[in-house]
Amino acid sequence: MKTLDLNCDMGESFGAWRMGDDAAVLEHVSSVNLACGFHAGDPTTIRSTMAAALARGVAVGAHPSLPDLAGFGRREMSIQPQEAYDLMLYQIGAVAAFARASGSGLHHVKPHGALYNMAAKNPELAAAIARAVRDFDSSLILYGLSGSELIRAGRQAGIAVASEVFSDRTYQSDGSLAPRGLPNSVIHDLGEAVAQVGRMVTEGRVRCIDGKDIAIEADTLCIHGDAPQAPAFARAIRAELERLGVAVRAPG
Fold first, then answer.
1. Which among 77, 117, 153, 171 has the fewest CB atoms less than 10 Å away?
2. What is the DSSP secondary-structure string of the chain?
3. 85-109 pLDDT, tens per residue?
4. Residue ranges of domains in the chain, CATH in brackets
């Protein structure tokens, strides 16, 4: 039976500011990526979201970001590879502390937002991120954009990787995600999202914004927890995967 991980970026509330309906999404996913405090999240949110995920048997990973609370980690910054390495270690360590205190451990690491997209194209940045994951814990799985430099860097570093695809984002013909500033870069229609997932799973292909079809490898599928429609997307996509005979479970 084909398997696929269904992951969600969550734990993105901060202080009195609420973001997303994490509890509703947790009913349908197999892994979560917890904000580490640099783009969103705070210590209490990390602890409570991790507890809820572990109670449901959902795998927990760290979701490190550029230090950009005001921009939700979605604005590019000019950083050197060593800075990226240090940012990764610092944030992974924070989330791992809560995992250890709860008697568990981290399952994976997935960079967030601009850092994720920068590492998808920049080999030096990708290598620094992969080294940080390896040096912290070589048993962790590195989640990265399918076909990207981050996946290649993880393999070269000798750690397990999971090629990630997206239900709610559109693609460019080079395999990168369409920048959020472009029209139609985010999919809001549930039927369109479910259809895109179906093609990724059954055909290993996705239609790009220029109309071109490209091949894509899918180990894990992302739903963005900050979107208002996230619970509905998670529910419908999980149902579609089960209809297609795909077992939903975390990699590894």
1. 77
2. --EEEEEEEE---BTTB--S-HHHHHTT-SEEEEE-SSSS--HHHHHHHHHHHHHTT-EEEEE---S-TTTTT-S-----HHHHHHHHHHHHHHHHHHHHHTT----EE---HHHHHHHHH-HHHHHHHHHHHHHH-TTSEEEEETTSHHHHHHHHTT--EEEEEESSB-B-TTSPBPPTTSTT-B---HHHHHHHHHHHHHHSEEE-TTS-EEE---SEEEEETTSTTHHHHHHHHHHHHHHTT-EE----
3. 999 999 999 999 999 999 999 999 9
4. 3-248 (3.20.20.370)
